[in-house]
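User: quick one, fold this
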Amino acid sequence: MIVTKFAAALLLAYLVGAIPVGLMVGRLVRGVDVREYGSGKIGATNVLRTAGVGAGTAVLVGDVLKGVLAVILAGLIMGGGRFYVGGIEVGARLAQGLALLAAVVGHNWPVYVRFKGGRGTAVLAGGGLVLAWWATLICVFIFGLVIYVSRWVSLGSISGAFCGIVLLIILAFFGLRPWEYAISIALSSALVIGAHWDNIVRLVQGKERKLGQRAERRT
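Assistant:
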């Protein structure tokens, strides 16, 4: 029964993360498929460039809430239940941590729209607020500061995700946050950074779009 709950929590987290908020908002606000513009992603940045500030903000909030909801639901489903694998306790903490990872996977590869999604930054922030809220706020500050200075959203996302890896490992080392959270946030952050690989290439080449540039239709 507990194993079934654990599996259900992760599956639900993936399905919540996979909700294509950006695609729905783009169609509702501008009547466009945001996958046909700019980066082809359905995250807040591409929606901002394609459909405007209001639409981009709505997607940002929606994607953050996906992360929040996925982690909270995992905790509620597991309750106080736990089981052991090879002598290692598996319970609500691990379920919540992996729920964040599952939600990021769902956002980046959503089953509803042929596995073509976003990069997971906002979902990571949302889940992080539940698991380690003040550490996440520090990373959000880093994210915003880098964007303010550089005007590159991608560089801000990469910096914020890297901040999450470092901070949570430090907090877990000193016993201030569970290792289950630290490992899951580190894996989720690494996934977000990896999803920005094409941005990293453009940053190195000096071809990355800056904040405020409109997205052009993809050819």
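User: anything notable?
Assistant: The first strand starts at residue 83 and ends at 85.
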